[in-house]
């Protein structure tokens, strides 16, 4: 089987020298183990900071070891009673074609006719992040106006739609191309959208919200956070979810107007989705229902084959994806 190792820690965008493709034998199964053939793999932004040798909420990837991350696959050999051959599972050993793992580290999925990739996106970690961040961390209330950055991506596209479905007054997103802006307003039914690559994020956010907004869902940091601090209403709430504008930039700077948070009595709350496990049943039920009712527009950008992982990852970090970035190894 083949897997991808971290050969070198990147500076800036990870290039081909970052990776080593390794062919190796799978280990023998022990009692309770399953052998999974991966069907779809995910690339997610948090993987970039994990390539650096810095202390964070997840330990860094180890040099000369396989990278890991979310995956959905099918059990093809089993010594587990709970996960027989043919079971579709989600687990954490991505970046490889096959995985041998103890059954407690794999979650059985009920696909309900949905594609496997949905369980890495709208019904997986990004969907859970959008749900927990909006409803729990930012304490969204019907009638709130909401601003979300990286709004055409996996998390952001769901934040905006969840807010609309839950009764937002106004939802505006920011994204990095005219096509993405059109997608947000035309298909995802945002009230407005801005293209941050047109510049003047500060001015554009102000114009998009003549009456301010109550919630900012921050995926980007930097200039977006600065603009949000400027234009958010008094007692506004911010869910600090990510800061992708800085992930490849060692000299990234923060907002210069943090003092606004004082005068406006803002609540800024960072969060990590894994701390919101108790919300998972509600999230799966609610979002599953919205999907079945046809209320959600869900987009993916798919790369094919393990060899495409590096390209998919750079694509994710540079905005080549619309919606969830997925790498597909085989048909469902
Ligand atoms: P996305 O699908 O949103 O992909 C990343 C997007 O970021 C790209 O498509 C690109 O879109 C945008 N982007 C890249 N560089 C910049 C930049 N300099 N300024 C503005 N936008 C940029 O990824 P996810 O939805 O998976 O993740 C979104 C955010 O949520 C990330 O910050 C991630 O780290 C965070 N996250 C946090 C979690 C948590 O538990 N706290 C869990 C999951 C995700 P564009 O074309 O618009 O530039």
Automatic annotation (TrEMBL):
<dbReference type="InterPro" id="IPR020843">
    <property type="entry name" value="ER"/>
</dbReference>
<dbReference type="Pfam" id="PF00107">
    <property type="entry name" value="ADH_zinc_N"/>
</dbReference>
<feature type="domain" description="Enoyl reductase (ER)">
    <location>
        <begin position="15"/>
        <end position="327"/>
    </location>
</feature>
<dbReference type="InterPro" id="IPR041694">
    <property type="entry name" value="ADH_N_2"/>
</dbReference>
<dbReference type="InterPro" id="IPR011032">
    <property type="entry name" value="GroES-like_sf"/>
</dbReference>
<dbReference type="InterPro" id="IPR013149">
    <property type="entry name" value="ADH-like_C"/>
</dbReference>
<dbReference type="InterPro" id="IPR036291">
    <property type="entry name" value="NAD(P)-bd_dom_sf"/>
</dbReference>
<dbReference type="InterPro" id="IPR045010">
    <property type="entry name" value="MDR_fam"/>
</dbReference>
<protein>
    <recommendedName>
        <fullName>Enoyl reductase (ER) domain-containing protein</fullName>
    </recommendedName>
</protein>
<dbReference type="Pfam" id="PF16884">
    <property type="entry name" value="ADH_N_2"/>
</dbReference>
<keyword id="KW-0560">Oxidoreductase</keyword>
């Amino acid at each position: 089987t083949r897997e991808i190792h971290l050969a070198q820690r990147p500076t800036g965008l990870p290039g081909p020298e970052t990776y080593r493709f390794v062919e190796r034998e799978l280990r023998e199964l022990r009692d309770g183990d399953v052998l999974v053939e991966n069907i779809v793999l995910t690339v997610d932004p948090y993987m970039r900071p994990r390539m650096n040798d810095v202390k964070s909420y997840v330990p860094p990837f180890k040099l000369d070891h396989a990278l890991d991350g979310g995956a959905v696959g099918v059990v093809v050999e089993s010594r587990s009673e709970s996960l027989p051959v043919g079971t579709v599972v989600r687990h954490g050993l991505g970046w490889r074609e096959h995985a041998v793992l103890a059954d407690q580290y794999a979650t059985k999925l009920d696909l309900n006719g949905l594609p496997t990739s949905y369980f890495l996106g709208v019904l997986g970690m990004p969907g859970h992040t959008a749900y927990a961040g909006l409803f729990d961390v930012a304490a969204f209330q019907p009638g709130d106006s909401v601003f979300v950055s990286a709004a055409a991506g996996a998390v952001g596209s769901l934040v905006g739609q969840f807010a609309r479905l839950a009764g937002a007054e106004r939802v505006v997103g920011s994204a990095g191309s005219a096509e993405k802006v059109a997608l947000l307003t035309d298909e995802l039914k945002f009230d407005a959208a801005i293209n941050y690559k047109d510049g003047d994020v500060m001015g554009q956010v102000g114009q998009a919200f003549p009456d301010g907004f109550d919630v900012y869902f921050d995926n980007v940091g930097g200039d977006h956070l600065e603009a949000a601090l400027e234009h958010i209403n008094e007692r506004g709430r911010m869910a600090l979810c990510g800061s992708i504008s800085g992930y490849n930039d060692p000299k990234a700077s923060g907002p210069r107007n943090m003092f606004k948070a004082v005068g406006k009595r803002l609540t800024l709350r960072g969060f990590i989705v894994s701390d919101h496990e108790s919300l998972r049943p509600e999230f799966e039920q609610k979002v599953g229902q919205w999907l079945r009712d046809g209320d959600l527009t869900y987009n993916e950008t798919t790369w094919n084959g393990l060899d495409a992982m590096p390209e998919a990852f750079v694509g994710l970090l540079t905005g080549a994806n619309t919606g969830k970035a997925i790498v597909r190894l085989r048909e469902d």
